[in-house]
Amino acid sequence: MAVTAFDEMNGIGVSDSAAVRDAYGQLKAWLDATPPEHFNTRRSQAELLFRRIGITFAVYGDNESTERLIPFDIIPRVITKPEWSFLERGLKQRVTAINLFLKDIYGAQECIKAGIIPADLVYRNAHYRMEMRSFRVPHDLYVHIAGIDIVRTGENDFFVLEDNARIPSGVSYMLENREVMLRLFPDLFSKHRVAPVENYPDALLATLRSLAPGSATRDPTVVLLTPGRYNSAFYEHSFLADKLGVELVEASDLFTRDDVVYMRTTEGPRKVDVIYRRLDDDFLDPLVFRPDSVLGVPGLMNAYERGSVTLANAVGTGISDDKAVYSYMPEIVKFFTGEEPILHNVPTYRCREKEAFAYVMDNLSELVVKEVNGSGGYGMLVGPHASKREIDDFARKLKHAPDGFIAQPTLSLSTCPTFVASGVAPRHVDLRPFVLCGADQIRIVPGGLTRVALKEGSLVVNSSQGGGTKDTWVLDA
Amino acid sequence: MLSRTADNLFWLSRYVERADFVARILDAAHRFASLPTSYGGGEGNEWESALASAGDPEAFKTHYSAINADTVCDFLAFSPHNPSSIRSCIEAARENARSVRTALTTEMWDAINGAWLELRNYAGKDLNRDEFGRFLDWVKTVSLTFDGSAFRTMLRNDAFWFTRLGTAIERADNTARILDVKYQILLPHDEKVGGSLDYFQWTTILREVSAFNAYHWVYRESIKPVLVADLLMLNKQMPRSFANCYGVIVEYLDLIADAYGRRGPSQRLAGNMLAKLEGEDINRVFASGLHEFVEAFIAENNGVGEAIVKQYLVG
Amino acid sequence: MRIRVVHETIYTYEQPARGLVQVLRMTPRDHDGQYVRSWRIDTTVDGRLTAREDGFGNLVHWFTPDEPAEALTIRVTGTVDTEDTQGVVRGTVERLPDPFYLRDTDLCAANPDLHIFAERIATEGDGAPLALLHRLMHAVPEAVAFEPGPAANAVPAGKAFEAGRGICQDLTHVFIAAARHIGIPARYVAGYRARDDGEAAVEAPHGWAEALVPNLGWVAFDPCFGMSPSDSYIRVATGLDYLGAAPIRGSRTGGGTETLDVKLRVEQGRAAIQS
């Protein structure tokens, strides 16, 4: 790609090191003054620290040496206060709109009647749960914990790439990365006023408690429901339960009686008020969803419908992070908040629309084509990186079921200085801030999880494909 | 606390204790086997009785054709087909520990996880007699380290109490199993009493529960079968005796009952058992039948274990 | 026609089953051509039986025994008066928007051959939906031979199509998958069917499909018997597929192996009146 990426340290143009952006002044000076060996030492220290602090992480799984090691980059990513304020306003607006949207499609369905979003896109989607149509969730809030993926392409250009409204993960990395950085580089922190993230567990607990049903006592019982220790994110479940000070439960620890959920304790059954569930809808209740699920609690949905227990997130939020629904988010935000969207979407071509489809077919080699939820697992196509044959194969699938796909231009994600084998070099990054939506307020811990594509030129930040993480610093001044 | 957590803690300690017991049985069997034949050694009976005390002879038969030092050592130490082999015990203990990682102290986790990792240096290797001896010593160290770290680092709350209960129930059962297999050699019989064969068999029993030295401290006289039985069953000073185990069980069940504000079947059953052991006299036990007494104890101890499971661990 | 149903489902467990919950979609509702005169559910074990409505508008009973049970019989008895409506279904409780019934499910998942089959039926001959659906109803049993068997053996529509034979659930799923593929909302119906020969003993409950025909509404099609359901059918529950309409879904902890026995009589009225 010929497009030059926006570098968050140097501004436009990676080679132009004269124009360092203000936010990175101190960091740049530190990078210049630090000999490369020093980075190497620190990096191995970081790894040791992860093993020690993250002892609860490393012990799970029999493959313990390979388990945790999602690469960590020791150079922080810096975000200024004005940038963050902008993002924060945008995130609040977006998550508020998502909650209003969910309330509407499970209730009055005004947005469908108003033609904001096509009816069949909602009703045919497997993530639209008809079970949710018959009752209202506490405080009309559906998404309590959202992870909104944001990419940057220029000084003032931020885009939402994806709304994770089901069970977003990764927050434990945000917390651990900061912990490790504080230990490794105390002097760097003394030169910057970095907004803390350590209060995330408190904010999460406050959020969860605010959602307790009316039948709960003043000290509601909150639990974290995990699919179990064979789940790939189990360390995070265990880590969070520990930080929150709540029980980490598996399905077999819970049971329902007369539409109330109880936890089996040594002191007898104890009523459960709020379940922070890290288990997909499909597995929650074998009597309502997948009958073969052994990870779920029979009768849970009845208790939920009767309002004796709150599930966080609510059931059926997957409809709002579907890629096809995503493309309507700007209209959804406008419709429900009456405001212009603060955060923009990446331009998206809906292949279900004739003109867009024709454009996509003509420009496959320049586009990223993604499947929408529940369309059969055909995967995605990254046009610029695909061979002629891969493109032809994909074109056939696309022609067969255009409804199942959307396409987006390949974005040139911003880069941040990253310590790699050849020294400090720019690598593409994204950002996943975590938005907590309680009955009392929306809480966002400043920053989030920065993911970095460690391969030169790569735009794929996923940890399964060579991505790493960085600490994210929101400067307080 | 979650019933599952308590259950994991309870079984974690039971498995650690069982591994230690099996190691002691194997150690004693080796010692006995190395005696000259005239002292009763080398006849192979010790392997049969080791198997009977620490394993399931029926399960053994499906995997081995003969009972000898090699097969019994393999079955009791390393066989994955034997749920009570040292290896199976350490694996099961680690599996239980893994499920409740956050309920353990780092030291406890390190003890059990370290053992599990180190097990690979022994299991599946062809160990000679010396190496096998070192392996058995190592197993005993594992249980010491685990127990010690629990004792030194755990908060004194229900998590600790359930851990102790698991150890005590398992210990009582283990001691009873030895007596169940070997009660005959403690009974008076026609042969020349006090012969060297008997002497070595009695001392083997004492060694199996590491009470050889303790015996002399407690009774200050030569080894007599009645006193061996007394030490293992009714003497409260002896950590592995029925009476001591029940002292511990009652103590911790009472602490749990007080903390939860509820008493139940397990407190009642354990209390009855302790009262019975305290009021018992070893001569009366011999008069009314040693074997019957041991068999009844095994059944009742299982009953207490089941009562604990039902009252607290399944929820 | 008056139809009397006696439907016993008998479970026995190796050991007492704890935490038993049975979800019963076994109660028909009134609609045009179907009037429920009497209907009741009895169980051989004491417990809580609560009724509610599910998202499709089905009447659902949740049964939870008070104590662990070694055996449990669920006995449904009732009498329903029916009229032949030529398959047209009116006056039903409808809770969901029509496009919902275009949704794919695991059991209605098609394969490319089934897609081609559906497209061929859609394009050969009269394109009017009603005619097309009748063609589909007759074509399904030709492509997938009907072989009675237990409902638990149901496979995804694409698999059944490939196998060329299946139980009534399979044929119905093939019909539904084909209809949805060509853009016609379709759903599964669970119920009872009185035998043509008047014999009251029936092996199992029956299943068929309904499809939405513009200007006519929901119309029932029974691909197993190649006919639109008549007055010998009792319509009990609907769903996106068999799973959503299944008479019984249950869960339990422990209990070991479960054995299941079904005794079902679907008697036509005249016989009942004579007796």
From TrEMBL, chain A:
Residues 76-453 form the Circularly permuted ATP-grasp type domain. It comes from the Bacteria. It holds the Pfam family CP_ATPgrasp_2. SUPFAM superfamilies: Glutathione synthetase ATP-binding domain-like. This is Uncharacterized conserved protein, circularly permuted ATPgrasp superfamily.
From TrEMBL, chain B:
It comes from the Bacteria. This is Uncharacterized conserved protein, Alpha-E superfamily. Residues 1-313 form the DUF403 domain. It comes from Methylobacterium phyllostachyos. Pfam families: Alpha-E (PF04168). PANTHER family: BLR5612 PROTEIN, SLL1039 PROTEIN.
TrEMBL record, chain C:
The keyword Protease applies. The keyword Protease applies. GO terms for molecular function: peptidase activity. This is Transglutaminase-like enzyme, putative cysteine protease. InterPro entries: Bac_transglu_N, Papain-like_cys_pep_sf, Transglutaminase-like. Keywords: Hydrolase, Protease. It holds the Pfam family Transglut_core. GO terms for biological process: proteolysis. Residues 160-225 form the Transglutaminase-like domain. PANTHER family: BLR5614 PROTEIN-RELATED, SLL1049 PROTEIN.
